[in-house]
Amino acid sequence: xxxxFCYLNGEILETDQARISPYDIGLLRGYAVFxxxxxxAGRPFLLAEHLKRLRASAAELGLAVPASDAEIADAxxxxxxxxxxxxxxxxxxLTGGVSADGMHATxxxxxxxxxxxxxxxxxxxxxxxGARLVTHEHLRECPxxxxxxxxxxxxxxxxxxxxxxIDLLYHDGERVTEAATASFFVVRDGRVLAPxxxxxxxxxxxxxxxxxxGEFEVSYGSFTVDDVFGADEAFLTxxxxxxxxxxxxxxxxxxxxxxxxxxxxxxxxxxxxxxxxAAATSAS
Length: 284
Ligand SMILES: Cc1ncc(COP(=O)(O)O)c(C=O)c1O
Description:
Blueprint: E1 5-8, E2 11-14, H1 25-29, E3 32-40, E4 43-45, H2 47-60, H3 69-83, E5 88-95, E6 111-118, H4 124-129, E7 131-137, H5 151-155, H6 157-163, E8 167-171, E9 176-179, E10 183-188, E11 191-195, H7 203-210, E12 217-221, H8 225-229, E13 233-238, E14 242-249, E15 252-253, H9 261-283
Parallel strand pairs: 7-8, 7-14, 11-12
Antiparallel strand pairs: 1-2, 1-6, 3-4, 3-5, 5-6, 8-9, 10-11, 10-13, 13-14, 14-15
Helix pairs in contact: 7-9
Bound molecules: pyridoxal-5'-phosphate (PLP).
């Protein structure tokens, strides 16, 4: 494996030199949150939004991030320089730290790790023709925080592979919330419907919907699995995948089973935001 560097508790280290205690309560109990951002033209994209969400996730679990935004930005810059990715994702992981009894964490003793990876790229046909999902009844614990628990997703990789699906679509028996690794939206009569409760606030979803600029209307509320099957269009948003049209769920077509006009407009908005971030980098 290529030599890679990470940040751990204030230091930049080669990843195979990094040591985390066997008593770390993130490992023993899953007491941990993270955030994941991507680069555009080699520079962190939506950094402030991701740091704000990391701090909110941490606060929700009673954890504190042991570094300032400026220190984190510096550490990310160093890692991007050392790790030489074409484009990267940057993973910021915060755990409760060392716990002698495996049950209690000491405030101020958090473990804080930053890793980088190559940015994964979805095949172009997924954007051109749309993706499939599989529904699954599940409500994430602490859904508004980005905890490290993705157990339900990991247990269902085979179900997704059998269905040719790129993600699970969670519902709680009634309301649809989000996908296992992405925000989820439907379009009905030209209007985007966004779930308003029990979801992680998605950075890409917020980016593309906030400045709708009259191009399309957005309303926040709740909708059911049946509503999804009756929608004209559906799409996912996430850091690593951007905006992905969803054309089939549980083997049933959404709308006419093709990528719709509102989804295309949302995809264009995301592409424009990425292009303007890339232009800002090359101008600086
Ligand atoms: C559960 C969940 N919801 C939503 C999202 C989308 O968030 P973002 O757009 O910030 O990547 C993600 C991905 O990070 C996620 O894991």
